[in-house]
Design brief:
This protein starts with a helix and ends with a helix. Helix content is about 30%, strand content about 25%. Strand 1 (about 60) and strand 2 form a beta hairpin. It has three domains: about 1-55, no CATH class; about 55-90 and about 195-245, no CATH class; about 105-185, no CATH class. It has helices at about 1-10, 20-30, 40-55, 75-85, 85-90, 155-160, 175, 180-185, 225-230, 250-255, and strands at about 60, 70, 95, 110-115, 125-135, 140-150, 195-205, 215-220, 235-240. The radius of gyration is 26 Å and the shape is elongated.
């Protein structure tokens, strides 16, 4: 129990301890006569055993320049938000157009969004897309974008393609290779949602106590959550961390992708 509680204290995500601080705390507790205290070496072995058992969520990446930085998976973090019922049910899948004011988030509606039409109490999901016309050489896609209610959709691409006579020539050459959306095959028929992210970068100066060195860090927040939930404790995920100032943004972007 003493080793478990000590490991829990030293592994706190909200309060980080340096190795010298851990050693001082253990020495202080021993001087007070505490029994069964683990050694720092024993705690390190326990930490490595837990990592081997559950896996280390942080990936070490070496850039072409030889500089090293560390990554945490964005997709796994979002998947955990969806798996957590307290988080999932507070998330809003589509941004809402408040007709002059947005509901807590800035958003560029390129695909789907929702709006309250005609004073309705419930928001309706709308789609921003392209008009398609049937020609002698196949379906032609209008490059112009316009908005239609999702409730007016009658059939999916899969339904239309299944009708051989209707889909005999497919799409024109410009869009033949783009249909269907690659995410359709990847999702296996499941719903595909776009999760907006708030990403920001900061540099942290070295502390005089040497508890940490100067480093650069990239954080991410799930913008599908309401503002009060998003600004809660531990809702900002550390995505990238580097102690080298010359790593540059490009290797970080490639690593995240």
């Amino acid at each position: 129990m003493a080793e478990f509680m000590t490991h829990l204290l030293f592994s706190s995500p909200r309060l980080r301890f340096s190795e010298s601080q851990k050693r001082s705390i253990l020495s202080w507790a021993t001087a007070l006569g505490a029994d069964g205290l683990p050694s720092l070496h024993s705690l390190c072995k326990t930490r490595e055993w837990i990592k081997a058992l559950f896996g280390d969520p942080t990936e070490k990446v070496t850039a072409s320049s030889g500089n090293i930085f560390y990554l945490n998976s964005i997709s796994k973090a979002i998947a955990m938000d969806y798996a957590n019922p307290l988080m999932h049910f507070s998330m809003q899948d589509y941004a809402e157009d408040g007709q002059g004011q947005m509901s807590q988030d800035y958003f560029i509606p390129k695909k789907f969004f929702q709006v309250k039409l005609g004073g309705a109490s419930e928001a309706e999901v709308l789609a921003l897309g392209h008009s398609i016309s049937k020609t002698e050489v196949g379906y032609s896609v209008d490059p112009e974008l316009f908005i239609v209610p999702v409730s007016t959709f009658a059939r999916t691409y899969k339904d239309i393609k299944a009708n051989g006579s209707e889909f005999s020539k497919g799409f024109t050459a410009a869009h033949a290779g783009l249909m269907p959306n690659p995410l359709r095959e990847k999702s296996g028929g499941r719903m595909v949602l776009m999760v907006p992210l708030i990403v920001f970068m900061d540099d942290v100066s070295g502390n005089i106590s040497k508890q940490w060195n100067k480093h650069h860090v990239v954080y991410m927040s799930n913008a599908s959550m309401p503002r009060d939930a998003r600004e809660g404790v531990l809702r900002a995920l550390c995505v990238v961390l580097s102690t080298c100032c010359s790593v540059g943004i490009d290797p970080w972007g490639k690593g995240i992708h």
